[in-house]
Amino acid sequence: MTTSTRGAKVPAVLVLEDGRIFRGRAYGAVGETFGEAVFSTGMTGYQETLTDPSYHRQVVVMTAPHVGNTGVNDEDPESGRIWVSGYVVRDPARVHSNWRAQRSLDEELANQGVVGISGVDTRALTRHLRERGAMRVGIFSGNALPDEGTMLAEVRQSSEMKGANLSAEVATKETYVVPAIGTKKFTVAAVDLGIKGMTPHRMAERGIEVHVLPATATVEDVYAVNPDGVFFSNGPGDPATADHPVSVMQAVLERKTPLFGICFGNQILGRALGFGTYKLKYGHRGINQPVQDRTTGKVEVTAHNHGFAVDAPLDKVSETPYGRAEVSHVCLNDQVVEGLQLLDQPAFSVQYHPEAAAGPHDAAYLFDRFVTLMEAERA
Ligand SMILES: NC(=O)CC[C@H](N)C(=O)O
């Protein structure tokens, strides 16, 4: 059990681009940071949230009121570092206690230079974002802060999420291989647009050797690994900017290689098929979102982290250059497209996170579906 009072007495201010201001105390590193203000409704899994590369350039507000209780360990991160650009909590744990804990959350944020703020009325902030939409934000902490007008001007000069092309900033620069666990059955080329560590692990558990390729990988790079299937990962930024992975995916669809995409990968499949993408008002982030599989009618409780979505018709099968396609999954909160599948070739994707980490495992069957497509191709 460790106690920490780091930053507890240093003032901090959160300034939204529309001029609303919340005052609190420094949490984690002291300094200033900018990003898109978004909220996550996950009650658990803060380490996985912080280290998900899809949160690059986002300031995450936790709706769970008490954060940090179980400290930080070196097993749960989804990547090699924290990616959120800022962190907002109401009541940080002063005492953490868990058999796996190695240090406190505010120590970890400080070590990694992540500026946060605590003591914020996160319920009021979340309601504000829900009503006005996700927007730019700045967190400023320290004993001598700029005046409000200066802070607001800095927030309004910071970059927007719409139009941001960020995959190359978070993805691996070099290809690496995640070996199959047990007998190797298949090889998959996984295009890393900001991949979470649990995703190749879920494939490895099913006998897949995963070659994780940089976001800049070409069609030749993909086929150089002689893949049984091709995967496109989650990742940060605006899918409207992802022209390169869209063209690589179109080449994969041409060849009818089994294809699976998660989150950003679903948006890329949407674009590859000719659908548009758009920015949601405030997005879906958390581990408690109800999604219906429209093929089976079953409802899954699922993990989400997306601010954009695919604009595809829910009520009809669409003709695309790669055959017929339909919306396979839909979010029951707001009818947003949560999955796509092709009817004439082995390709599908989901907007949410079947790998969980954090979150329920209801959607793990989608990895089995990918295996089934690869088996059918081989038969
Ligand atoms: N987790 C993801 O892949 C997110 C995809 C995209 N950046 C979005 O916000 O919608």
From TrEMBL:
Binding residues annotated for L-glutamine, in chain numbering: 54, 235, 237, 264, 267, 305, 307-308
Key word Membrane present: no
SMART domains given in the database record: CPSase_sm_chain (SM01097)
EC number(s) per entry: 6.3.5.5
SUPFAM superfamilies per the UniProt record, alphabetical: Carbamoyl phosphate synthetase, small subunit N-terminal domain, Class I glutamine amidotransferase-like
CDD domains to which the protein is assigned, alphabetical: GATase1_CPSase
Alphabetized GO MF terms: carbamoyl-phosphate synthase (glutamine-hydrolyzing) activity
Stretches for region CPSase: 1-186
Reaction(s) catalysed by this chain's protein: hydrogencarbonate + L-glutamine + 2 ATP + H2O = carbamoyl phosphate + L-glutamate + 2 ADP + phosphate + 2 H(+); L-glutamine + H2O = L-glutamate + NH4(+)
Transmembrane segments: none
Keywords assigned: Amino-acid biosynthesis, Arginine biosynthesis, ATP-binding, Glutamine amidotransferase, Ligase, Nucleotide-binding, Pyrimidine biosynthesis
Entry-linked PROSITE patterns: GATASE_TYPE_1 (PS51273)
Residue ranges occupied by any Carbamoyl-phosphate synthase small subunit N-terminal domain in the UniProt entry: 10-140
Residues of the active site: 263, 353, 355
InterPro entries associated with the record: Anth_synth/Amidotransfase, CarbamoylP_synth_ssu, CarbamoylP_synth_ssu_N, CarbP_synth_ssu_N_sf, Class_I_gatase-like, CPSase_GATase1, GATASE
Family annotation (NCBIfam families): CPSaseIIsmall, PRK12838.1
HAMAP family linked: CPSase_S_chain (MF_01209)
Job of this protein: Small subunit of the glutamine-dependent carbamoyl phosphate synthetase (CPSase). CPSase catalyzes the formation of carbamoyl phosphate from the ammonia moiety of glutamine, carbonate, and phosphate donated by ATP, constituting the first step of 2 biosynthetic pathways, one leading to arginine and/or urea and the other to pyrimidine nucleotides. The small subunit (glutamine amidotransferase) binds and cleaves glutamine to supply the large subunit with the substrate ammonia.
Assembly: Composed of two chains; the small (or glutamine) chain promotes the hydrolysis of glutamine to ammonia, which is used by the large (or ammonia) chain to synthesize carbamoyl phosphate. Tetramer of heterodimers (alpha,beta)4.
Family: Belongs to the CarA family.
Protein name: Carbamoyl phosphate synthase small chain
